[in-house]
Write a structure and sequence with these properties.
Layout (H helix, E strand, L loop, with lengths): L22 E3 L3 E3 L5 E5 L6 E8 L2 E8 H4 E2 L2 E5 L13 E6 L15 E3 L2 H16 L4 H14 L3 H12 L5 H13 L3 H18 L2 H17 L3 H18 L2 H14 L2
Helix pairs in contact: 2-3, 3-4, 4-5, 5-6, 5-7, 6-7, 7-8, 8-9
């Protein structure tokens, strides 16, 4: 099932343009670290990226070449930590290119980030320590930690954990969770890639619950990208799987959703 989060609705899906350096992370998230990893789309044709972090009385700027920070179509740099980010202040990452494109062309609202409050940070630290002490496989610990991060709206951290896990493991749940999180922050293209992988892995492993969840998420993403018929068909397929599993709660939820979405 999709991850429940304690704060904030799903961000409206952005119309991702490959020529724009739109933000991947941090985006609509809280952070544990004051030196976050900054990730953005490697805009086609761009060779130089101007990276800015803006907030109250803070305007950090660095320039990077594609060779320095990009691998394929994803670019990544780390905020230096100076000036230090302050608790309670919302910040925004802005990327500009030498092709006169900017991440601000993504008009999606609510894409800022801020440090998690200290009391919440203390809670997540204790949760992290407890999970690490458990006698569980490494991938299970990572999944548990990503879920708890998502519970506290630490979306960027959860995505980082899951992305690292996908480099070493092929688990349907991991890719489905990634799809859920990318969809939550409005990145429907990244969500689609993760959901497609989750569907394939779930079919191979015959994990019907994950197959249904992945198809439901993929259906929503397809619908958001104006592939209306395909989106509705995927949601119908997910409903049928849940019916076979006897999960009436999710069947009812999908029926309500389909009633709204069907033309």
């Amino acid at each position: 099932p999709p991850i429940p989060t304690r704060r904030g609705p799903i961000v409206s899906p952005s119309r991702e343009n490959p020529y724009i350096p739109y933000i991947i992370t941090p985006r609509a998230t809280l952070l544990r670290t004051d030196q976050p990893t900054l990730r953005w789309n490697g805009a086609i044709g761009a060779d130089i990226f101007t990276v800015q972090v803006r907030g109250r009385e803070l305007n950090w700027t660095e320039k990077f070449s594609r060779e320095q920070v990009c691998q394929e179509n994803i670019c990544e740099a780390v905020y230096s930590g100076y000036p230090p980010l302050q608790s309670g202040i919302w910040y925004k990452l802005i990327i500009s290119t030498d092709t006169n494109k900017s991440s601000t062309e993504d008009s999606t609202l609510g894409l800022g980030f801020k440090l998690i409050d200290q009391d919440e940070a203390d809670k997540i630290k204790k949760i992290t320590q407890r999970i690490q002490k458990e006698n569980l496989p490494k991938e299970t610990k990572a999944l548990l930690l990503a879920r708890r991060y998502a519970d506290y709206n630490l979306i960027a951290g959860a995505i980082e954990i899951l992305e690292e896990l996908t480099k070493h493991e092929k688990i349907a749940t991991v890719d489905r969770l990634l799809g859920d999180l990318y969809r939550q922050i409005g990145l429907v293209l990244e969500a689609e890639v993760s959901y497609v992988e989750a569907v394939e892995l779930a079919e191979t492993s015959k994990n019907l619950d994950e197959l249904a969840a992945a198809k439901a998420g993929l259906g929503e993403v397809k619908y958001a990208r104006n592939n209306i018929e395909e989106g509705i068909n995927l949601l119908e397929e997910a409903k049928k799987i849940y019916e076979n599993l006897g999960d009436q709660q999710r069947v009812s939820k999908l029926e309500e959703q389909l009633e709204i979405l069907k033309p």
